[in-house]
Amino acid sequence: QVQLVESGGGLVQAGGSLRLSCAASGITFSSNAIGWFRQAPGKQREWVASITTSSTTNYADSVKGRFTISRDNAKNTAYLRMDSLKPEDTAVYYCKVSSHFDYWGQGTQVTVSS
C-alpha cells in the first residue's frame, strides 16, 4: 500500500549539484518524519539528513552545509538538495518515512566523478 519512489540521481562532476525527490503514495507525509540515507558499495547504510513533522532539520556532519532536506506536504514529496558534491558522496540514496513501520524506497544512484 505504501510506496516511496526516489528520483533525481545521476552522474555529476565534483562540485556539482543534484536534487533528489521522494514521492510517496499510500501515506501522508505531514504526520511523519522523513529521512535520507545513503549506502556506498561495501559500506553500511548511513543516515544523511532528517526532517521532522515540524520541519526541524538535522544533518550528518559529512553533508552539513552542503545538503538541504525539505518537504512539501501538499505534494507528499520530500527533497534532498545536494550542492558541492564530492566523490565520497557517491552512493545509492534512500528515502525513509517513519511511521508505525519504517518505509523505504528502492533508492536512486548518485555518482560523483572527480
Structure characterization notes:
- The structure is a single chain.
- By secondary structure, this protein is an all-beta fold.
- Helix content is 0%, strand content 54%.
- It is built from no helices and eleven strands.
- Strands 2, 4, 5, 6, 9, 10 and 11 form a seven-stranded mixed sheet that branches.
- The model has no long low-confidence stretch (mean pLDDT 96).
What's the short story on this structure?
This protein is mainly β.
Main beta sheet strand tally, sense and closure: 7 strands, mixed
Give the helix/strand class.
mainly beta
- Termini distance? 40 Å
* Unreliable stretches covering 5 or more consecutive residues: none
Rg calc: 13 Å
What is the arithmetic mean of pLDDT? 96
What is the 3D form?
globular
Percent helix: under 10%
Features:
single chain; 114 residues; mainly beta; 7-stranded mixed β-sheet; 4-stranded antiparallel β-sheet; 0% helix; globular
Write the layout of secondary structure elements.
Elements: E1 3-7, E2 10-13, E3 18-25, E4 33-39, E5 46-51, E6 57-59, E7 67-72, E8 77-82, E9 91-98, E10 102-104, E11 108-113
